[in-house]
Here is the input.
Amino acid sequence: MSLKFPKPLNELKIAVVMGGESSEREVSLNSGNAVLDALLSSGVKAVAIDGVKELLASNPQNFDAVFNILHGESGENGHLAGLLACMNIPFTGCDAQGAVLSWNKNTAKTLASAKGILTPKSQLLKKPSELQITDNGPWIVKPTEEGSSVGLYYADSVEELQKSVEKALGDVDSVLVESFIKGQECTVSIIEGEALPVIRIKPHVGLYDYEAKYKSSQTQYFCPSGLDYEMEKALQSDALIVYNCLKLKGWARVDFILDEKGSRWFLEANTTPGMTKTSLVPKAAAAIGWNFADLVLQILSSAFDEEVQ
Here is the structure.
């Protein structure tokens, strides 16, 4: 891939928007500081900006672009993308349309399913009384609009499911109750329409939730994935179908479960993936020979795709 910038790197002024007020603030700050350091080491005049309010207060039109590493609601639900588009400021990641389609997990699953992609059977709930027991479980309960496996529950009995739904709906407006698919967690990172090598994930115990992602030293990541060539290519192909049907751009990460029969089940798409030491996109990029600074510059370059010919 080639890098495209409107001016030399040492003349670029980039706002790295991180932190904010979501449940993923801590991870976003870690990701943002890693991105900031990489840009500074490459000679870019990068500035750390904590959330949307600070960005607006900093006269954002003085920046050549915004590197959006704001995990969670404001950075991934289309608000920031729409705001920057209105101000004609280039930014990394998808536009507001792609953000809206992917941020809502129910919408993303529906669109992916329409393209022939398998996704676990689910029901959308706004009240505990709406829960319908249609199978014997187990089940996964997750917020309809949230990231980094925040608020994820596993239930293997009707009683536990009812309690998990009540607990989840105490924190968010709506949840998905999905049929639990037993299998291997896999993820595919995409940079400017190119699928990177698949990463297979093995949590030490239980689910690949927030704890397993960011606090466990025993979660194992395999890249190369150890899957056969045909399965690797099939997962990459599925990820690109999801990426395109959700109108994503620049970069993203698409998560799957590979079940015991070899079926591939789409879970969700992440439009502002983590960039911490344990994050998955940098691991996939390293597998094709990119160091962290290479990856950051490639993502930044995508912000200028429509400006630089």
About this structure: The chain has a mean pLDDT of 92.
